[in-house]
């Protein structure tokens, strides 16, 4: 369990994915550039609203799969550039302490040539494609998931020094790099209050997703389950509100998991360290 001080200290080449039927990587409604509730990398509050800010998804890696988090930054019309800039900046300290990593390097440079017919054309230096096919493919997946959050982008055309390296690719080409359970909210380090909203996507047995809330000592203080819109071989969306009783600001954990149909154990667990607000 991470301490309160740690939490508040916040903050490839061509891919042919081995996708299962129905596992296309849909992650629900894409965000727009309009103002929305502020969610920052520095212990965001669900109550805060920044009228001159924008919240964007940034896709890093965790346990060998792509992993989403969010950043709130000053509003800009260049949202795709902002998203890639935040991607290159890498995980925050608290995200890194929770096992979040990235296949990117901060010295990577990019240029967005434009967005035409849903394809964002992005040029990277040759070193972006170094390190072997799997490393390059993970980098591409991070870029694709980060850029296709915007409704104007459905695929990414990768270039090296201005020359195409492959046909445009989308989320479905990297669906095998999604974890079984994806948690979109809350994000690591977020300040939450009861009832906390947990949402994301999952491809689990009988579509059943279970959530439990743990206090700073790892004691379970709440548990609920819900049904995703699809499961048992296809990816569906889920969302539920989980009330809990806990007074005094403290660190804790939101766990999202599948209950094994074989032995009843928790499997595919995604743990999100958060900060519980005072009651």
Short description:
The chain is mainly beta and 279 residues long. The protein is built from four helices and 15 strands. The protein has two domains: 33-176, no CATH class; 181-276, Sandwich (Immunoglobulin-like), CATH 2.60.40.
**Which strand order spans the largest sheet, edge to edge or round the barrel?**
9-15-14-11-12
Count up the helices. Answer: 4
Q: Give the mean pLDDT.
A: 86
The gross shape turns out to be globular
SSE arrangement, N to C: HEEHHEEEHEEEEEEEEEE
Helical content, roughly?
A: 10-25%
Question: How can the largest sheet be summarized?
Answer: 5 strands, mixed
Radius of gyration: 19 Å
How far is it from the N-terminal to the C-terminal residue, by CA? 21 Å
How many discrete structural domains? 2
Number of strands: 15
Q: Assess the beta-strand content as a share of residues.
A: 35-45%
Classification by helices and strands: mainly beta
Segments where pLDDT lies below 50 for 5+ residues? 1-50
List keywords for this structure.
disordered N terminus, single chain, Immunoglobulin-like, 2 domains, five-stranded mixed sheet, 279 residues, 13% helix, mainly beta, globular
Give the helix/strand layout.
Elements: H1 4-8, E1 53-62, E2 65-74, H2 79-89, H3 93-97, E3 100-101, E4 110-116, E5 119-124, H4 133-147, E6 155-160, E7 163-164, E8 181-185, E9 191-192, E10 196-202, E11 208-214, E12 220-227, E13 236-242, E14 250-259, E15 266-276
Parallel strand pairs: 5-6, 9-15
Antiparallel strand pairs: 1-2, 1-3, 4-5, 6-7, 8-10, 10-13, 11-12, 11-14, 14-15
